[in-house]
Amino acid sequence: MSEPPVTVMVVDDHPMWRDGVARDLSERGFEVRATASDATSALRIARTVTPDVVLMDLNLGDTSGVEATLQITQEIPGTRVLVLSASGEHADVLEAVKAGASGYLVKSASAEELVDAVRRTAAGDAVFTAGLAGLVLGEYRRMAITPDSEHQAPQLTERETDVLRLVAKGMTARQIATKLVISHRTVENHVQSTLRKLQLHNRVELARYAIEHGLDQDGESEEQE
């Protein structure tokens, strides 16, 4: 029995671009449940159709896509937001991630890159256009230089720490399961337990926490260019 298609909503204020992306995704097997042209209608429609992934433009007229991203990720926990923007400005990328976006692609991405990004976002991965992931990681490493002394780090088990470290490296749950020789369900259980302990909401925040606390740095880490 085949898996149900990934459900998507496309938010963009340019009708030709919005309809073109929706059509391309439909032709590649995604279920495009809705489109929207502004932040207000995006939130209202997303509440109704609850897609797996919202493709979000940042320039939506009077209300920023960042604000729409924040509202959707806070109000609809099962929906992930993948930003698809013409802007590659560092400030825009960081604001989107801080608002809860699971990833960020620039509109110069190929159709293949977009399809892959939507599938990976639906699966819970953090997906970025080449070069932008390093920007986000670097920013949170800089933030980690000044630790928050008001909050004591919760106690994680050794296995939870192992899983967290691999999440920080961008590995999927299935890849982690293979590496640690445990079941996919066990990995998911550890992820959910760690999210509860750290009072976080999704794997993007979990990866961010690991990076802030240096858990992505170990002997297996590859040197960044």
TrEMBL record:
Record-annotated HTH luxR-type domain positions: 149-214
Q: Which GO terms describe its biological process?
A: phosphorelay signal transduction system; regulation of DNA-templated transcription
**Which keywords describe this protein according to UniProt?**
DNA-binding, Phosphoprotein
Q: Which residues form the Response regulatory domain?
A: 7-122
- Residues recorded as bearing 4-aspartylphosphate in the entry: D57
Q: Which InterPro entries match?
A: CheY-like_superfamily, NreC/VraR/RcsB-like_REC, Sig_transdc_resp-reg_receiver, Tscrpt_reg_LuxR_C, WalR-like
Q: Does the keyword Zinc-finger apply?
A: no
Tell me which PROSITE patterns the record gives.
HTH_LUXR_1 (PS00622), HTH_LUXR_2 (PS50043), RESPONSE_REGULATORY (PS50110)
Q: List the molecular function annotations (GO) for this entry.
A: DNA binding
Q: Which Pfam families match?
A: GerE, Response_reg
PANTHER family according to UniProt: TWO-COMPONENT RESPONSE REGULATOR
Q: What is this protein called?
A: LuxR family two component transcriptional regulator
Natural source organism: Saccharopolyspora dendranthemae
Upper taxonomic lineage: Bacteria, Bacillati, Actinomycetota, Actinomycetes, Pseudonocardiales
